[in-house]
Design a protein that fits this description.
Blueprint lengths: L5 E7 L5 H15 L4 E5 L6 H5 L7 H13 L9 H12 L1 E2 L3 E5 L10 H15 L4 E5 L5 H4 L5 E9 L3 H16 L3 E10 L6 H11 L2 E6 L3 H9 L11 H12 L12
Parallel strand pairs: 1-5, 1-6, 2-4, 2-5, 6-7, 7-8
Antiparallel strand pairs: 3-4
Helix pairs in contact: 1-10, 3-4, 4-5
The chain binds adenosine-5'-triphosphate and magnesium ion.
């Protein structure tokens, strides 16, 4: 067991670029650090494995449904601790890759009457992140995750916005909800996606209006589009591509350079 690792979440409006930013940040961490990384796809649509070129057999949603079903059918003997069972099943869903482990949350079914399973799950996930020095969370679109407290304890929250009113408004609501629902967030940053130099002034004025520091912005990158169309993993994007250059700057601005190889004390 290590101490508590750094947890970074990526949220924002639907289609703003959360998954792209998560994948490129992972690429940066793989190439620049020696850290053990956990990546969590917290979006029920489970897009991240494809974008990373990783395989997922089962989601956390599937195994918790399996547990709920077995409880319902009276199949679990009273001597078996449900927490231990679920914990083992969640660990089995982990997709182990060369430099990172990937966990997909999937859909949670049977919400409401299964608060027990859900709260056990939260604890299991909290424990899991302690085994990694860095955890990246690719959140679902919008605001729901805040009330469900999926990202209740993060060190760095990146809110991605594209150049749209809706993108900025979602960022503003996320910022407001953080204090309304009392979740613990270390530092919040705004990340622009599909911005160019001209549009960057609107990003800066939105950021001061909302009261969130800008971590940087990614340009609209044809290479990202073509990788997406060809189904090529973004981890293979060349280091010279404009969006990766932007991520290098963002990594520096949010303080990740302290994890760089050879720079750790
Ligand atoms: N900087 C960029 N340049 C070009 N295309 C991009 C860029 N960022 C994202 N895209 C494309 O835009 C689409 C949406 O991006 P992405 O999946 O990262 O958004 P998201 O916020 O994760 O969406 P969702 O809310 O559906 O999870 C994808 O097809 C992606 O390839
Ligand atoms: Mg996504």
């Amino acid at each position: 067991m290590m101490g508590k690792g750094l947890v970074i979440s990526v949220s924002g409006k639907g289609g703003a670029g959360k998954t792209t930013v998560t994948a490129l940040l992972l690429k940066w961490l793989i190439e620049n650090t020696e850290e053990v990384i956990l990546v969590v796809d917290a979006d029920p649509a489970t897009n991240l494995p494809d974008v990373l070129g990783a395989k997922i057999e089962k989601t956390v949603g599937m195994v918790s449904k399996q547990l709920k079903d077995q409880i319902n059918m009276g199949k679990i003997p009273p001597t078996v601790a449900k927490k231990d069972l679920l914990e083992a099943w969640v660990h089995q869903t982990l997709s182990e890759n060369d430099r990172f482990d990937l966990l997909a949350m999937g859909r949670s079914e049977g919400e409401g009457c299964y608060c027990y399973v859900n709260s056990v799950l939260t604890r299991i996930l909290d424990n899991l992140t302690e085994n990694y020095s860095i955890t990246l969370l690719d959140m679902e679109a919008g605001l729901e995750h805040l009330s469900r407290r999926t990202d209740h304890d993060v060190d760095i929250m990146l809110i991605v916005t594209d150049p749209s009113k809706m993108g900025f408004e979602t960022a503003k609501r996320i910022k407001e909800l953080i204090s309304e629902v009392h979740i613990k967030v270390g530092k919040v940053f705004l990340v622009g996606n599909k911005f160019n130099h001209q549009l960057s002034s609107s990003l800066n004025s939105a950021s001061s209006m909302i009261g969130i520091e800008v971590a940087g912005y990614l340009p609209n990158d044809d290479e990202v589009s073509s990788y997406n169309m060809l189904g090529k993993p973004l981890l293979e994007l060349p280091d010279t591509s404009p969006s990766y250059k932007a991520i290098e700057q963002i990594a520096q601005n949010i303080g990740l350079t302290r994890f760089k190889r050879g720079e750790k004390s």
